[in-house]
Amino acid sequence: MSNSTSTSTYWSSQRIAIYALFTTLAIVLSFVQIPIFPAAPFLKYDPSGIVVLLSGFAYGPLAAIIISVLSSLPHVFTDPFGGLIMMLCILAFSVPSAWLYSKKRTRMGAFLSIMVGAALFILMAIVLNLLITPFYTATPLDAVIAMILPILLPFNVLKAVIHVVVTVLCYKPITGLLKSFSASQAASRRV
Fold first, then answer.
1. Confidence (pTM)
2. What span, in angstroms and rounded, lies between the C-alpha atoms of 141 and 133?
3. In the structure, what pLDDT confidence band is assigned to residue 1 with cuts at 50, 70 and 90?
4. CB neighbours (10 Å) of residue 91?
5. Range of 126's domain?
6. Residue 112 maps to a domain
7. Do 24 and 42 form a contact (C-beta atoms < 8 A)?
8. 114: in domain
9. Rounded Cα gap, residues 14 and 183, in angstroms
10. Bigger pLDDT: 14 or 167?
């Protein structure tokens, strides 16, 4: 198979439509912001990362990159620093998870890949808060450092746990649905 044939097969109209669907769903969910940590009600959880994780598990790390970036763009334009933090954090979570899972597509592979992604997400969130928050909110660096253990770490761990649990619960039903849709599309093309 030539490279142009494999590229056109990868970028089929069906694949583009599915990526667009995942991106749209992630954008909509990114505006659903829920305070989940009473100690810091200004920190809000949004479930858009779950959509990116699911797309990465179903279609690989390239899907995770595309959907992460595209779904973060509205926030980058309206809130550059917050949008950038959002984009880099979900990339840190979804891309390593999707890449590792693509190498070992087993239940244990899924568990290990999502745990590595969660750890990288938490680390990225802390580092970005240290680098960007002092400039973004004019909060002194000492104050941001003081927030790591009581606020930033528990909030991001809680966010990662929610992402992991929902992704693990939804992955098999959603990929089964996508596979049956793909099979029905392939069958209709043969007719």
1. 0.87
2. 8
3. very low
4. 20
5. 12-190
6. yes
7. no
8. yes
9. 12
10. 167
In this structure, the number of other CB atoms found within 10 A of the CB of residue 79 comes to: 13
**132 Cβ contact partners less than 8 Å away, ≥ 6 residues apart:** 81, 84, 85
Residue 3 lies in a domain: no
What DSSP designation does 1 have?
-
pLDDT bracket for residue 187 (50, 70, 90): low
- Whether the pLDDT of residue 190 is over 80: the answer is no
Kindly list the distances between the CA atom of residue 189 and the CA atoms of 4, 12, 15, 185, in Å, as whole numbers in the listed order. Answer: 21, 13, 15, 6
Q: What is the DSSP string of 136-174?
A: HH---HHHHHHHIIIIIHHHHHHHHHHHHHHHHHHHHHH
Count of structural domains within the chain? 1
Burial degree of 158 (CB within 10 A; 0-12, 13-18, 19+)? middle
Distance CA 93, CA 76 (A): 18
175 vs 57 pLDDT, higher one: 57
Please tell me the predicted confidence (pLDDT) of residue 9: 64
In whole angstroms, give the CA distance from residue 142 to residue 120: 23
Does residue 6 lie within any of the structural domains? no
Q: What share of the chain is helix, strand, coil (3-state, %, to 5)?
A: 85, 0, 15
Instruction: Write out the two tokens for 87.
Output: 């984009």
- Exposure letters 11-24 (e unless 16+ CB within 10 A, then b): eeeeeeebbeebbe
pLDDT of residue 174: 86
Report the CATH number that the domain containing residue 72 is assigned in CATH. 1.10.1760.20
